[in-house]
């Protein structure tokens, strides 16, 4: 019997061995995923072929980005199927067409801003767009802020600083927006998602999350749901504590949890378990695609266990097929 996750209206069937790659290819870490208007899946990864494109059945279509990207981190797709590729290795965001043509670059490749300066970028992590097409960039590992840009890449404003108070961040790791222009920020090591208006004014925060890493707004209506990828424990002292993830949580527009997928017994390569959910996307049928950085995370979660070869090849990409209700 197929493995299922979730409850009620939010039940999903785990699709085993989803990605069908050319012989000898490896995805390695899948930092993020996106799905276009034709349900093609874009897999932004840290292997030799940074952008692998699959159909919804997992069949290989093409790849691009070789020699362009330093270290894949975030991926967002707009209504016109333009892809915003965030590269934390060379501190840039590149807007690309679906065939890999670079249409816009924000940031100077290999020229990071000073550490914690608040200037863009120092290991930026992800992007999201306002209803007007303005670009929000979460920044990230060497900064603790969000930058807002015009659609053509001119800086409008920056907000945020290191800390734990509202409007402060401890690894601003992911960002999403909704149809009303609210901005949602995964404040990973503060174990929360913060919610802002389009100008960076703090509105509220969602708690009871464990290291929220991936963040996906589902649907374009006034009351969307969100799928949040939570990392498991990051320290030796709580490495084997159950019920901390890694897992996916589905919450409503107020942050109330309505379903949880996996995570009760920690990480693993077994069907129905996660390693390190880092990027999430949904297709037109509500199926969930999860990119995981299981290679990077392996020694954190399993310091005394040899990593299976499958983790490096395809296991860092999972598909969860929505079960009709």
UniProtKB/TrEMBL annotation:
Keywords of the record: Glycoprotein, Repeat, Signal
Cross-referenced Pfam families: NHL
InterPro entries linked to this entry: 6-blade_b-propeller_TolB-like, NHL_repeat
Top-rank taxon: Bacteria
Intervals holding NHL repeats: 128-152, 160-199
CDD domains: NHL_PAL_like (cd14958)
PANTHER family for the chain: BLL1368 PROTEIN, PEPTIDYL-GLYCINE ALPHA-AMIDATING MONOOXYGENASE
Protein known as: NHL repeat-containing protein
Lineage of producing organism: Bacteria, Pseudomonadati, Pseudomonadota, Alphaproteobacteria, Hyphomicrobiales
């Amino acid at each position: 019997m197929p493995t299922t996750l979730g409850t009620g209206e939010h039940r999903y069937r785990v699709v085993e061995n989803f990605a069908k790659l050319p012989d000898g290819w490896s995805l390695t870490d899948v930092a993020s995923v996106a799905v276009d208007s034709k349900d093609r899946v874009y897999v932004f990864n840290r292997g030799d072929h940074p952008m692998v494109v699959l159909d919804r059945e997992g069949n290989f279509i093409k790849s691009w980005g070789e020699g362009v990207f330093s270290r894949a981190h975030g991926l967002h797709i707009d209504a016109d199927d333009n892809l915003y590729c965030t590269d934390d290795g060379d501190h840039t965001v590149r807007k690309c067409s679906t065939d890999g043509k670079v249409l816009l670059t924000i940031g100077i490749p290999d020229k990071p801003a000073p550490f914690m300066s608040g200037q863009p970028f120092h290991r930026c992590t992800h992007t999201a767009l306002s209803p007007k097409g303005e670009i929000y960039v979460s920044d990230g590992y060497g900064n603790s802020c969000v930058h807002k840009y015009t659609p053509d890449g001119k800086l409008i404003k920056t907000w945020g600083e290191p800390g734990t108070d509202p409007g402060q961040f401890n690894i601003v790791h992911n960002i999403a927006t909704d149809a009303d222009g609210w901005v949602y920020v995964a404040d990973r090591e503060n174990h929360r998602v913060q919610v802002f208006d389009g100008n960076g004014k703090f509105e509220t925060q969602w708690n009871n999350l464990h290291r929220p890493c991936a963040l996906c707004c589902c649907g374009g209506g006034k009351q969307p749901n969100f799928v949040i990828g939570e990392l498991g424990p990051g320290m030796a002292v709580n490495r084997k504590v159950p019920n901390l993830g890694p897992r996916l949580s589905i919450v409503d527009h107020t942050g109330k949890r309505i379903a949880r997928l996996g995570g009760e017994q920690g990480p693993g390569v077994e069907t129905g378990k996660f390693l390190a959910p880092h990027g999430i996307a949904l297709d037109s049928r509500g199926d969930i695609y999860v990119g995981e950085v299981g290679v990077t995370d392996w020694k954190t979660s399993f310091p005394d266990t040899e990593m299976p070869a499958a983790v490096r090849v395809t296991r860092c990409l999972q598909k969860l097929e929505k079960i009709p209700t």
